[in-house]
Amino acid sequence: RRNGRGESAYLPQVGVTAQKTMRLLPASGRKATQKVVVGDQDGVITCFGIKKGEPVPVFKTLPGQKIARLELGGALNTPQEKIFVATGSEVRGFTKRGKQFLSFETNLTENIKAMHISGADLFLCASYIYNHYCDCKDQHYYLSGDKINDVLCLPVDKVNCITPVLACQDRVLRVLQGSDLLYEAEVPGPPTVLALNNGNGGDSGEEVVYGTSDGKLGLIQITGSKPIPKWEIGNEKKRGGILCIDSFDILGDGVKELLVGRDDGVLEVYNFESADDPVLRYDHALSESIASIQGGCVGKEGYDEILASTYSGWLTGLTTEPVHREDGSGGELKLSQEMQSKISSLRNELEHLQMKVLQEREKYQQSSQSSTAVSSVPAFSVNDKFTLNKDDASYSLILEVQTAIDNVLVQSDVPIDLLDVDKNSAVVSFSSCDSEPNSNFLLATYRCQANTTRLELKVRSIEGQYGTLQAYVTPRIQPKTCQVHQYQIKPLSLHQRTHSIDHDRPMNTLTLKGQFSFAEIHSWVVFCLPEVPEKTPAGESITFYFQNTFLGTQLESTYRKGEGCFKSDNISTISILKDVLSKEATKRKINLNISYDINEESVRHTLKLIHPKLEYQQLLAKKVHLIDALRELQVHEGNVDFLLPKYRSILEEADQLLEEYKRQPAHLERLYGMITDLFIDKYKFKGTNVKTKVPLLLETLDGCDQDGLIAFFEAA
After folding, report:
1. What angle separates helix 645-652 from helix 600-637, to the nearest 10 degrees?
2. Per the database record, which ranges form the BBS7 platform domain (predicted)?
3. How far apart are CA 171 and CA 184, in angstroms?
4. Sheet holding 554-560, edge to edge
């Protein structure tokens, strides 16, 4: 927003949109404004321009299958003004006037999820499959080890060869050569979107910007032999995952800025003050996830804009055009005449719509009294995401609905903690539930404020306890209707995939042997652990590495047909795997030969990882319990100069301490539970039941130092 000016300009609404389905067509003249083209999940492509602040339609297609991607193409080094959409397993091409010139039915058995176009080359990805076509003829094929989220190709005119890059869910970018994997580039989170740096891959044409589902942003150079990471920006502000990226000079300084759209509705502009890392210059919060972002000139000649399309189909523009003008006397800024008339026409339109809704509602109520009336259930779209956060070992459940949410009922058949979320303004109420005999451990209702379309919840699970979390979503539509969404809480739910582990740690080993296939043992691992691809891996064997996000312990799992080997520095992880895998094999009537090798040193090592966290939480709990008494003293005495410095600091930090304690309920109980499980599991592998000694252990935990705790474990 140039000179600190700019305001949201509202454009028309289309249907629900997927990621990367809105583009700006190149301007036809030097000063002309650009047309907007957007594809929605009703299968409709809408193209329009803006004249005098009003949208003017260019063309609109008939409804069809959901549009998963929309890209612009054309011959290399010419304006990219042909419109291509991926819908189902088909790619369609349209001219900028809306005339269809291509209908290419691919040989893909699954729906297209990602698409990139470069001249006559078409790159398509379904869940695990990549296909390259040239002039609609099959060229290359690749089967990925995990789900593909996005695809692009380095500019052929700069790198002189076709180099496709796949963004895969297992935290890697896979770089291909023909049908073969050239190499893998590790990135810090699951990459959700790729873009060429500066829109052209930078000077070398090899620079690719990626965004991850946990909100990180990075630049990596894809050379012919290896990846070179250039910069990486973490997500310190705990913002949403990145869905779209564009490069555009919105500040007018001759250098293209990086435009970023996130799934929590935050739009960001980064600029390159120095040649190295980008700096966040501007951000703006919208109420829905941003599916597509583009920079260009849409509303008025000479004024650039950032255009964003959101999940439910709203198109929003942030303009560099000044919307205020001075009154001439050097006094206050006033809205321009044009903006005032725009606001008043919007008000009139809203009043007209409200009247129309009331009339239709009355008509519906009258017709519903009739004996022949049939009430149809209105369909509505829900965009949901259930992911593990590494920072605080909790799961985020994000629910986004195309219309306002009335309430969400959350039910779980396993014990879980609901954590506080700052962004959540909904009122939560808990219902008492009987864990016996219905296995109902949680029943909570979130009542949303008017016009809330996005709700974020946080839960923390307990490893070893597995089942289902269900969310019943009821929007504010008539007649009342509800959708149920289910999320699996896995036995090792707090584990997250990682690229490598520390092999020098003391490890416990669990080995399974039996008459099982590679696909069977893979399905058991999928059942036990998050972030494992459901598709059985290619090849004869596979190794996955995991890290426990709560404790920092690790797990290595290697398996093939007839054999599985699991190594962890935490005995409890091995114990959970042994119990669950045995149960799964028994269900299939498969005999397992189970052996284990327990390393005594690993228990001491795990206790050393847990104890600092335990000490911190015990101290926090003690401080929080003192706050009320200290505040009472403060009121009685008038000042707190007579208090010891440590008590004075508790009073000074009281609000932060209470906030932290509230954000992490039951944290201490979880740590106590983990230490108790570790104690029981250590002796379970020795064939000894020590459950009678648990009360003594809990007494010891209160105020016990690390050496004392280790001594108790060994003396028992």
Report:
1. 90
2. 495-597
3. 10
4. 495-498, 541-548, 554-560, 563-568, 508-514, 592-597
